[in-house]
Amino acid sequence: MEAFYIKNKGGRTVARTLILDKRCCRTLRKWCIALEQEQYSFVKGAKNSRAFVQKDIKVLEQMKKLIQEAGMSIEGAVKVVLSVPFAKVETNNDLEDGNRTPSVLSENIMNLPKEFIEQLLQEQILLKEKVQQLERIEIMNAERLERMENRYNERDNLLLTHVREIQETKQLLVASQNKQKEKKWWEFWK
Questions:
Q1: What total of structural domains would you count in the chain?
Q2: Which of 53, 86, 105 is the last residue of a domain?
Q3: Does residue 121 surpass a pLDDT of 80?
Q4: String of b and e for 12-41 (b: at least 16 CB within 10 Å)?
Q5: Which of 30, 50, 119, 124 would bridge 42 by S-S if both were Cys, CB 3.0 to 4.6 A apart?
Q6: Residue finishing a domain among 87, 105, 123
Q7: Would you tell me how many other CB atoms lie within 10 Å of the CB of residue 186?
Q8: CA dist., res. 139 & res. 136, Å (int)
Q9: Which ranges carry the DUF3967 domain (predicted)?
Q10: Taking 90 as the threshold, does the pLDDT of residue 114 lie above it?
């Protein structure tokens, strides 16, 4: 971890550097807790407070980009950020001076995470479009199902009405036939 130190920064300074929302310290704390849950470790200062080094700030900046620009969840951003490899490069000056400097990433490694993040952003945009398309299809299917249920209900009501009418007609026919049978032969023409 020697190569990652510029100087330790407190949470408030880091939060202002990242220009988080009005409750910047709370947001930063949530992000740090999410990172720690995925086995990321921060330098701890007095009273178990976090001291942020350059590596931490870069990780938090990438998280900010994924959360605010791409609309990812905190957990998703943590997994993406932690899946991107960081390279530790130490120089002879670090060892001689005893000073700690930020890590220097080769250009190839710097390009890889950017391309990776851009690809993830594009995939997330496509996924959002697919989700919206699926939601529209779901709404259309729900409307179609409702129309079909209404038609079936109307058909059922119409069938019940016809069945009742047929039963009433049959009852009237049976009643008139019974009346005819009850008449005597000389009352037949009445």
A1: 2
A2: 105
A3: yes
A4: eebbeebebeeebeebbeebbebbeeeeee
A5: 50
A6: 105
A7: 7
A8: 5
A9: 151-189
A10: no
Q: Is residue 125 part of a domain?
A: no
- Give me the domain span that covers residue 166: 134-175
Strands 50-51 and 43-44: antiparallel
Q: Alpha-carbon distance 7 to 13, whole Å? A: 12
CB 49 within 8 A of CB 81: no
Q: What is the phi/psi pair of residue 160, to 5°?
A: -60, -40
Question: How do residues 65-105 score in pLDDT, each as one tens digit?
Answer: 888 877 888 888 888 888 876 533 333 333 334 444 344 44
pTM above 0.70, yes or no: no
Give dist(CA 28, CA 40) in Å, integer.
14
9 phi and psi angles, rounded to 5 deg: -120, 145
* φ, ψ at 100 (rounded to 5°): -110, 135
If you search the block for the tokens 């939601």, which residue do you land on? 135
In a domain, 186, yes or no: no
The set of residues, in sequence order, having a beta carbon less than 8 Å from that of 64 and lying 6+ positions away, is 18, 20
The pLDDT assigned to 39 comes to 85
What is the per-residue pLDDT for 13? Answer: 64
Encoded tokens for 88: 């530790």
